[in-house]
Amino acid sequence: MTTIAIVDYGMGNLRSVAKALEHVAPRARITVTSSATDIAAADRVVFPGQGAARDCMASLRSHNLIESIAGAFKNKPFLGICMGLQVLFELSDENDGVPCLGYVEGSVMRFERSAGEREFKIPHMGWNQVGQSVDHKLWNKIEDNSHFYFVHSFYVEPEDKEIVSGTTSYLVDFCSAIASHNIFATQFHPEKSAESGLQLLKNFSEWQPV
Amino acid sequence: MGLAKRVIPCLDVDGGRVVKGINFVDIVDAGDPVEAARRYGDAGADELTFLDITASVDNRDTIYHVVEKVASEVFIPLTVGGGVRAVSDIRKLLNAGADKVSINTAAVHNPALVKEAADHVGSQCIVVAIDAKGVHREGETPRWEIFTHGGRKETGLDAIEWAIKMTELGAGELLVTSMDRDGTKSGFNLPLTRAIADAVSVPVIASGGVGTLEHLVEGVEQGGANAVLAASIFHFGEYTVSQAKQAMRDAGIEVRL
Fold first, then answer.
1. Is A20 on the interface with B (CB under 8 A)?
2. HSE on the CB side for A114, CA within 13 Å?
């Protein structure tokens, strides 16, 4: 039986992620865990997150999870969600600059709106379209430009544009998903994105990165 | 291509059961919140809002079970409001599976709760409900004021100033209800919605008074709302959520169909 560990470091609503995975992968064992042993033993790892970058980093440290995340990031199917995408980068613009995990080269930028862009509310909250920049197993059976649910005020800017797997337009065209080897990470919340999101989670539960 | 305007059906829950009637064609148990939520989800609702109107404290815990059940079957964002007084209430609702919690009367009595809540769980989880009514006192310019207790108690607070203050304290979204319009089916209070939408940088949900699909279009186009919330037009089967979204799309509004 395949095991999917959802990393619990006290940041955000993990029940939704767990329930959505149970829904699409009824035969997998889904655990919400903050144990390094569980994460090391799992076949797949989901790294969610909500809130502020500084709090997320502090919480990862206080839960002694950085090594486990690094291990999973290297060698098993790994799905980052929302803050679980952003903290993979080197530096976040949030709170005047927060050093993050630095596994992915690039930074995390704040949405800026000019005086003429007042209709663009921040946070970017709601359903927006994701253009699929690459052909990827996780996009399997999901139509290009499908809507996914977003809630965020910051977006990632990878140095290596080759890893951009999805793009979305809001104030700017930003990277809403990345893919590289065994890693896939999304700015949107698949667990809250109805059919398209469930399909993506199902694809993740079956994904065998080469 | 861009961010879609949201359509949010609102369900009143009392003692764990949906009240005010749901009129789906082939629904088995119209009072079951899970079944109602599933139908709305299937029809393309962008989010769901549950309002816990349970008056007795004894029944209050039932809302947690409802949220748990809905969150394990319906995979769209879920907001829960009603009776939220402390950060511990918010945590319990989020742990049960809610994505956002709406604070109403408690924010008026204790504005610091909004800040405390946003600091603990993040602004993205905190919706502040603003119930406003037009007030015209002799010798004063007419304005909108905040009311509590279903519009019965006046507070003297100016609605626009209050909206700004709530976002400064950390509200991530505002649910603006016109007490003058609620239940009238005569449409949103568009000037009120517009005034608040223009005054704050966070998203605004328009609520109160929807009777036709045209009202939803107006809420976005004239009210400047990012989302529209309605109850009775959906419950009584007058319109479906997908009809609502189609009408918005026909009017040139970006929606998720």
1. yes
2. 3
